[in-house]
Design goal:
homodimer; 222 residues; mainly alpha; Arc Repressor Mutant, subunit A; Four Helix Bundle (Hemerythrin (Met), subunit A); globular; disordered C terminus; DNA-binding
Amino acid sequence: MLHEEVVSRLRGMLLEGEIPPGARIPERELCAALQISRTPLREALKVLAADGLVVLLPNRGSRAAKLTGHDVRNLFEVCQGLEALAGELACKRISDEQLAEISAAHAAMVKHQRRGDLTQYYRCNRTIHEAIVRAADNPILSVLYESVTSRIRRARYVTPMVPERWSLALREHEGILNALLRRDGSGLAHILRAHLRHKLEEVTHAGFAEDSEAMGSDNAKS
Amino acid sequence: MLHEEVVSRLRGMLLEGEIPPGARIPERELCAALQISRTPLREALKVLAADGLVVLLPNRGSRAAKLTGHDVRNLFEVCQGLEALAGELACKRISDEQLAEISAAHAAMVKHQRRGDLTQYYRCNRTIHEAIVRAADNPILSVLYESVTSRIRRARYVTPMVPERWSLALREHEGILNALLRRDGSGLAHILRAHLRHKLEEVTHAGFAEDSEAMGSDNAKS
DNA sequence: TACCTCATTTTTGCATTCAAAAAACGGGCA
DNA sequence: TGCCCGTTTTTTGAATGCAAAAATGAGGTA
């Protein structure tokens, strides 16, 4: 197994909660599970630690990182900055095909909202946001965006929404699409920032902001 | 030597050009130089590779990353987004002490500009930008900012400036300070974006954007 | 000379090993 | 019983060893 594969496999386990936040990371077992020795596993752990998904305690092993309310706030703030930037750049660089894709995803999203299908709604939603970042055509931005959003994905795309919030979000998305069509970079940036600010409010309100991803089992001794 | 120390030591070598961009990284020699074995060195290399400072070629070792003109553009763009965000947040959160520090640094910078001391000017300049990020009080942002800026630091803080550009930069900095004093977040964000956009133009104009940090020796076989 | 081939050396990536640190256990004592 | 201290076991972090891959270089051929 390649180094990058080990990293992404582990990242997946951490993000999916397969290794719950705060839990001790059992090197031995993981080695057995992934069929690798400790050396490459530990290399991957250091990489993930640098990315904030794992915390290394000197001489005491590593644990899956646990997000605090502050972390969630900070991540959402950075996400706002990155999406706003992506929006600005996307307006300059987006192709007609990419725009068509986003329009289609938007239409599908509206449909799912009408039917009350939150899961499918979120899927389209995410497609749109990711497409905007892709349209910005900046690999550095893409990597940072992926790193930041992956850590708040569950909070962002699992939080339930009350009807008013949901329709507000939809109106914001109308604005996003319009701004894109008009290639109005600063307008789009503005809407995206507000959109994410509102999302953070929802997430916070839903109680995700406290130990966000730590919901469910919590094997850590603080 | 601690893991983090190895990483930051190596990062320093790469950023300072002690290991020139594109150069092969000699594991053996570095182990000897740092007095460590290959295992911790390789762990550090993977971390730096994830950060973009090193490229790993499977079965062919690692090399110091070489920035292309596109990389420089992309990094500056992301930097714009991050500084704009930092400005917004700083206006909400900056303390009077922090504001005083920035004012002092600004005054010193003006003095150095009058005397034509570019090095000292840049030192104060960097202090100001970093202080704004610190005032934003968002560790996630700080880490990303450090990662992005460290990679373009040499381009940013070494490029010579023609007098008109220099005085424009200074006027922009007056605007930055004023916006901070007025706690005008969006105004500050706007100025910072323009400031960095202009900086990128200077850097590009100075030819830094092509193999930016590859100036000097270039031991790589492309 | 230019180029191809194949043996030799070096380097890489990973498994294993080893010393030191931390945790777990258990006996002694109040 | 509850707690402290010394011992054993486990786990961690790093060095070493080893097989496979790549680079090097010498010799042969056109």
